[in-house]
Amino acid sequence: MMDRNEKVDAASASMPKPIGQFVPIFKANVSRDRKRTVQDNVSMPRMSETEEKLAFIRRVKQAREAAFDTQRPMQTILDVDQGTYKQYETRTPLPHRFIPKFCAATNVSLEWLLTGEGKGPPEHPRETPARSIRRRRAA
After folding, report:
1. What is the pLDDT at residue 125?
2. What angle, 0 to 180 degrees and rounded to 10, lies between the N-to-C axes of helices 82-90 and 49-67?
């Protein structure tokens, strides 16, 4: 059985000498585009898993409200009962198998639904009689 050093020597022996010498030295520098080094640990703001889940659920509700007054059309489109669909807008993420249908029905992009970036619902949802009555009652 070969020990670790023998395996490394055997692998580098099969590489051309110039490549075999530089691979271990420059492995950490993935790209040298315009004298910038790209590293594995790029500092980006991160959301917790719970925050991501809640943001996704909010976008599902926001998209549905912009497209339809009630949950009933989405229940019909996705072929689920009322209680199940209500959970998709309050606490349970929409299952993957429903996402393409949901995006098509609400006219939002997949990217927006998943990340919040891209084509989302219109800024001002369409005004319908039910919404105008609710708004007048609340005022």
Report:
1. 54
2. 120
